[in-house]
């Protein structure tokens, strides 16, 4: 009985009253799509009505769109298409996908259309859906659609492939983009320069600069696909970032030989390369060439030019370039202004730096956190009163510019150098209250200042605090703590810290090695210091001048000056030449050993090399002279 009831319920739509209701619904849908007409025109309309044509303005009538939005995709929407007698083709699919409605409805319609007899999606419909899925953030479904398009028989043009790559690149699906590129390239599409450029630019944005070179080589091997300006721009930029400066310059020359004109961006990239190589005159000649070729320098070009000249120590020239740029009508941005303020501050022209800050508003440049940081740092470096740097910190906050971790680091370092350790500690506390992550540079300054003040326990407490907060510490902070442990005679703790940093995977830098060697020399463990120097070189960490001076100082204090002289001679014939400290160290050694003739020769050599002997050395010489006996022999006791 129940089965019979169920059956009767399933066949309920056969009842005559419900059949009439379905027909009525169909009539309502038809009526919905009938355009309102004047009465005279509508008389006899049933006899004269013609099917709606594809391409008619009624193809996506507002009422059809309403049906889709209300009923989603389903029988009602299908019936609407049937009433309109619209043929399902690629144009219709593209138009439906343009409608502002739920992505699920678009996806259902797309899949329904793909199953229709005598219809196949082409690249335009696939890409229309892919764009919709990208906008909706449905990357998984988007990737499925891309794969479906790649496997289908539809024709994919180089422009289609380029757009597909760009969309996948924006979604950070780099490997998938490369996979599709090679899949489509191998089966149905010969890439153009534009297609390769899409891949190259995507790889650049993801920092895969080595892969860029592979694509370039592959592109050149295509035979009929030649690099254009966009390609060269991307490649030159990649080579510059990889430090392959010669390759960047070669490509620059190659593009000009091929009749292509470098853009301002390319010139700017090469400008930075030349400055990095120390080829200042070549860089300046490049700017002249740029202007002669009618390529106007941009604000980015001027930024690189000013920065490069500043690093080369040509501060006046850099400032003149800035003033000329303003006269030429090139509008500066805040990055350029920050660079100019920085070079003025470094050059001791703090007055000009502050004046430029005041002019920023008239130049339509709003100071940012970097601007204030640069001003504060310049004030400390120019030995301005601490109160002035502090006032700029308050001014910064009053003007709504939030201090960064680097701001606090600059202030803490500045306070430490002015022996305002308590102020620096207060700022460190403020950083913590504002939930800034621990800043190793700030801790480094404080630990060093506390060590200099012989507050070793306080320094160690801060060091341990940093380790607990970060799980480890930087090589530089380790080096500072090791140095102060060595100075206060806690050599075992210094060596333990050095071994600890290695165990934690924190590679010791030259400062850490020097700190240990200095402690060993101070403890009279010269052979161990020499062993550390060898270990340093074997680990691939290049010793600096201070490394050799530490060892030289240890040798100079022994009773055998010959080893010190040998090392000093070795330094003179190496790439690391002796400095004033080296000369004074060996001069003191010779004086104490009574080797006055050698000392006199060395003093002449010092002056010839532009070095002066310091007061300590001079005192050593006088003391040594006072020990000469009447017969010219030297008193050894």
Automatic annotation (TrEMBL):
PPR repeats lie at residues 192-226, 228-262, 263-297, 298-332, 333-367, 368-403, 404-438, 439-469, 474-508, 509-543, 544-578, 579-613. The keyword ATP-binding does not apply. SUPFAM superfamilies: HCP-like. Keywords: Repeat. The keyword Transmembrane helix does not apply. Coiled coil: none annotated. Gene3D superfamilies: Tetratricopeptide repeat domain. Belongs to the PPR family. P subfamily. This is Pentatricopeptide repeat-containing protein. It comes from Nicotiana attenuata (Coyote tobacco). The lineage of its organism: Eukaryota, Viridiplantae, Streptophyta, Embryophyta, Tracheophyta.
């Amino acid at each position: 009985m129940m089965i019979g009831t169920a059956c009767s319920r399933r066949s309920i739509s056969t009842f005559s009253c419900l059949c009439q209701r379905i027909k009525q619904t169909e009539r309502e849908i038809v009526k919905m799509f009938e355009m309102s007409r004047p009465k005279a025109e509508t008389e006899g309309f049933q006899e004269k009505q013609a099917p709606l044509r594809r391409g008619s303005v009624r193809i996506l009538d507002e009422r059809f769109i309403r049906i889709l939005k209300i009923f989603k995709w389903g029988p009602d929407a299908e019936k609407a298409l049937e009433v309109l007698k619209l043929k399902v083709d690629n144009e219709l699919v593209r138009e439906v996908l343009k409608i502002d409605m739920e992505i699920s409805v678009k996806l259902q319609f797309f899949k329904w259309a793909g199953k229709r007899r005598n219809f196949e999606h082409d690249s335009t419909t696939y890409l229309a859906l892919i764009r919709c899925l990208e906008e909706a953030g449905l990357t998984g479904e988007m990737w499925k659609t891309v794969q479906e398009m790649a496997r289908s028989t539809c024709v994919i043009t180089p422009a289609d492939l380029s757009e597909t790559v760009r969309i996948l690149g924006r979604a950070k699906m780099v490997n998938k983009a490369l996979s599709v590129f090679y899949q489509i390239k191998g089966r149905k599409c010969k890439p153009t320069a534009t297609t390769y450029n899409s891949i190259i630019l995507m790889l650049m944005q993801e920092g895969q600069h080595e892969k860029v070179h592979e694509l370039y080589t592959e592109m050149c091997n295509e035979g009929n696909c030649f690099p254009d300006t966009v390609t060269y721009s991307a490649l030159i930029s990649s080579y510059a970032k990889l430090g392959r400066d010669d390759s960047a310059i070669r490509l620059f020359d190659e593009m000009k030989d091929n009749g292509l004109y470098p853009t301002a961006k390319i010139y700017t990239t090469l400008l930075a390369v030349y400055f990095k190589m120390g080829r200042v005159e070549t860089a300046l000649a490049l700017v002249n060439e740029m202007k002669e070729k009618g390529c106007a320098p941009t604000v980015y070009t001027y930024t690189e030019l000013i920065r490069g000249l500043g690093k080369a120590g040509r501060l006046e020239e850099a400032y003149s370039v800035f003033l000329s740029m303003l006269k030429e009508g090139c509008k500066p941005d805040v990055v350029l202004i920050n660079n100019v303020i920085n070079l003025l501050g470094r050059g001791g022209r703090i007055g000009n730096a502050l004046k430029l800050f005041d002019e920023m508003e008239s130049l339509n440049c709003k100071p940012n956190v970097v601007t204030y940081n640069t001003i504060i740092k310049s004030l400390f470096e120019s030995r301005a009163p601490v109160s002035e740097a502090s006032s700029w910190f308050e001014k910064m906050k009053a003007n709504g510019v939030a201090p960064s971790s680097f701001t606090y680091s600059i202030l803490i370092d500045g306070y430490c150098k002015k022996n305002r350790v308590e102020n620096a500690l207060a700022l460190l506390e403020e950083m913590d209250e504002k939930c800034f992550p621990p800043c190793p540079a700030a801790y480094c300054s404080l630990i060093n200042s506390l060590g200099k003040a012989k507050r070793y326990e306080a320094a160690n407490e801060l060091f341990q605090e940093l380790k607990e907060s970060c799980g480890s510490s930087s090589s530089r902070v380790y080096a500072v703590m090791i140095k102060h442990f060595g100075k206060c005679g806690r050599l075992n703790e210094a060596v333990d810290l050095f071994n600890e940093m290695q165990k934690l995977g924190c590679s010791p830098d030259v400062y850490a090695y020097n700190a240990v060697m200095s402690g060993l020399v101070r403890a009279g463990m010269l052979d161990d210091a020499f062993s550390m120097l060898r270990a340093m070189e074997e680990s691939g960490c290049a010793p600096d001048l201070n490394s050799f001076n530490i060892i030289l100082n240890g040798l100079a204090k022994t009773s055998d000056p010959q080893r010190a002289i040998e090392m000093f001679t070795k330094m003179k014939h190496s790439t690391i030449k002796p400095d004033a400290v080296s000369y004074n160290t060996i001069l003191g050694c010779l004086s104490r050993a009574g080797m006055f003739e050698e000392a006199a020769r060395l003093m002449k050599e010092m002056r010839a090399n532009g070095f002066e002997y310091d007061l300590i050395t001079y005192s050593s010489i006088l003391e040594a002279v006072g020990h000469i006996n009447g017969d010219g022999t030297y008193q050894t006791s």
